[in-house]
UniProtKB/TrEMBL annotation:
Record carries keyword Ribosomal protein: yes
Entry's Gene Ontology cellular component terms: ribosome
Protein name: 50S ribosomal protein L7ae
Keywords tagged on the record: Ribonucleoprotein, Ribosomal protein
Record InterPro entries: Ribosomal_eL30-like_sf (IPR029064), Ribosomal_eL8/eL30/eS12/Gad45 (IPR004038)
Natural source organism: Formimonas warabiya
Positions of the Ribosomal protein eL8/eL30/eS12/Gadd45 domain: 11-80
Length: 81
């Protein structure tokens, strides 16, 4: 996925928000930074597997945050329907 598209997409930024979006059935894809701490993103990986939501790995939290238009890194982002 081209990260530049994130700026124009409906999204939930952050792991807690991504988990909520997946639980509610609103997420079509989840992007997770490879450098995120595993204890933070493991529940999201498991939930995505359970709900059959596609997971895309991204190089870094900084790149993911920048692509979302925020000044800080983020571990994950859910792309919404």
């Amino acid at each position: 996925m081209n990260l530049d598209l994130l700026k124009r997409s409906n999204k939930s930024v952050g792991t807690k928000q991504a988990i909520k979006a997946v639980q509610k059935g609103l997420a079509v894809q989840v992007l997770i930074a490879e450098d995120a701490e595993s204890h933070i993103v493991t529940p999201l990986y498991e939930l995505c597997a359970e709900k059959n939501v596609e997971v895309i790995k991204v190089d870094s939290m900084a790149a993911l945050g920048k692509a979302c238009g925020i000044d800080v890194g983020t571990a994950s982002v859910a792309i919404l329907k």
